[in-house]
């Protein structure tokens, strides 16, 4: 899951990038409204964490621009201004959630997962497909009841595919879900992760759609 | 006496009473003069009338009948109106009493031969008018007792003072009532103010206030406004400070949670480093908030302490040396055109210098120089702090002294308060803070201080 974090405090931005990374998110950190606008117009995000008081304007402006462009990406406002009127203003401006500073990192991660889940229209947090169960909150997985050992990247590839089981996901989309801006992407990284997954789950679990990308094999196939 | 009402009532009753008494004295004197004048005229007239009656022989005299002795002098009637008050004696020129009116005494009224005179007979003072009739050889003396005159004047004064004793208490009551009524706006205002809550700083109604009370009401309302503004500023400041403290706290908590959750030694080490920096920054923020609060409320420590500007700069530079050394930045102090002589208030100028130097060091690249120049220019001393850092964008320049404003090229430890403190301090010292980018690179902050 790729998320954009907009926060001007360096220590907090670093903390959010590392902390949300540990929780399984791929984080793009920016610290100004300008950079946030640029990132949002260039990249599709699963969610946005937005501070309100930024050096070159208010996070509410970013939010309004986003919603004005008919972009429904879930937005979580993260701010020191957490009085009830501030929360109301933020939510009415199009935010999906509101968290006051200081906050608990695990709670923030859980709220982000919930936002993404609701945004995708899924009722439960756990993902299931042909005997494979993924728990994004605990970052645990199992195959027919037996614990399944996956690396962070493998987990992310599998989760991206299982979030939309019937859809074909392009290699670029998988790369974007796996790597933030600051990370080097090796040209065949996705192929390597898919290869490892096939060896753990069976060769027919993930199908290659030639020229398009990957999708999960159907039930009973 | 400390009550306006009491004082007013005393003054009003006192003066009214005094005016009344003066009027009574005036009337007493003038009535006395008038009465004397009128009664003297009556005496004259009466004497002349008796004299003419004698001439016409309408009054018969004893001496006309023969030498009958003083005691046998006939008693005549002078007519009703004069009966009680006037006494008349007719004496022959050789000293014989030849006639007298019924109430007149036997002894001679006066020794004067003609005109007005006063004499005391049997303890009573008489005023007498004498007319000489040489043809008949008699003197006519008409007199009245001064006691009677005094009683007349006394009656007039009594008629004046008696109603006053009844009127004065009524008057005093009316004065008391009107003074109370006149002072009603004041007591009303006092009532409104004393029943007010401490937070109620609404202005008092000034419409319809009498001209004497209006200035006090306006002054009070002005004070209310200033107090309200000061409290509003304080509230804003507190709210803002709380917000600004929450962000570093959020950062600290997040980093602490990372250090606890991560098994990776490098990640943990980075988180702990971030926490250490964050604590320094938060401590600095707390110190700056205190600096700003003490400047704004004006109750800093050792307020009266003053020192030479060069000494103040020396102290600030020495304080900054450890930070500069850690960042490998050199601080140079340079006097342009000799040592200026200027005494500055330590509690104002020291925080200003400290924040400017701290900013310069924090924004300097490794190995750069920070220059502090002191320069006297006529009536001002300029203290400029120059760095070789990235400077600020032109759009940020006017916002730099806003509290908590932090530009794009912010340092990791900045709070957005340093320049606000410097400006507040230097403006309180009567000076000015000038900020500018340097060409080709760097930033310069200048304290302009009046000599």
Short structural summary:
The complex is a heterodimer of chains A (221) and B (451). In chain A, 41% of the residues lie in helices and 22% in strands. Chain A has 221 residues and is of the alpha/beta class.
3D structure, described in words:
The complex is a heterodimer of chains A (about 220) and B (about 450). Chain A is of the alpha/beta class and about 220 residues long. Chain A has helices spanning about 10-20, 35-40, 60-70, 85-90, 105-120, 150-165, 170-180, 190-200, and strands at about 1-5, 25-30, 45-50, 55, 55-60, 75-80, 95-100, 125-130, 130-135, 140-145, 145, 205-210, 215. Chain A contains 8 helices and 13 strands. In chain A, β1, α1 and β2 form a beta-alpha-beta unit. In chain A, α2 packs parallel to α3 and α6 crosses α8. The two termini of chain B are about 50 Å apart. In chain B, β5 (about 125-135) and β6 form a beta hairpin. Chain B folds into 3 domains: about 5-160, Beta-Lactamase (2-Layer Sandwich), CATH 3.30.450; about 210-300, Helix Hairpins (Orthogonal Bundle); about 305-450, 2-Layer Sandwich (Heat Shock Protein 90). By secondary structure, chain B is an alpha+beta fold. Chain B has a 6-stranded mixed beta sheet with strand order 1-3-2-6-5-4. A 5-stranded mixed beta sheet of chain B has the order 8-10-11-13-12. In chain B, strands 7-9 form a two-stranded antiparallel ribbon. Chains A and B meet through α1 of A and α6 and α7 of B. Chain B: It holds the Pfam family 2CSK_N.
Give a short account of the largest sheet of chain B.
6 strands, mixed
**Mean pLDDT metric of chain A:** 87
Strand content of chain B: 15-25%
How much helix, percentage-wise, in residues of chain A?
Answer: 40-55%
State the name of the first-level CATH class of the largest domain in chain B: Alpha Beta
List the helices and strands and how they pair.
The complex is a heterodimer of chains A (221) and B (451).
Chain A: E1 2-6, H1 10-22, E2 26-30, H2 33-42, E3 47-50, E4 53-54, E5 57-58, H3 59-68, E6 75-79, H4 84-92, E7 97-100, H5 105-120, E8 127-129, E9 132-135, E10 140-143, E11 146-147, H6 152-163, H7 171-178, H8 189-201, E12 206-209, E13 213-216
Parallel strand pairs in A: 1-2, 1-3, 3-6, 6-7
Antiparallel strand pairs in A: 4-5, 8-9, 9-10, 10-11, 12-13
Helix pairs in contact in A: 2-3, 6-8
Chain B: H1 4-55, H2 62-65, E1 75-76, H3 80-83, E2 86-92, E3 97-101, E4 115-121, E5 124-133, E6 138-145, H4 146-182, H5 184-194, H6 214-261, H7 265-297, E7 306-308, H8 309-326, E8 330-336, E9 343-345, H9 346-363, E10 369-377, E11 380-387, H10 418-428, E12 432-437, E13 443-450
Parallel strand pairs in B: 1-3, 8-10
Antiparallel strand pairs in B: 2-3, 2-6, 4-5, 5-6, 7-9, 10-11, 11-13, 12-13
Helix pairs in contact in B: 1-4, 6-7, 7-10, 8-9, 9-10
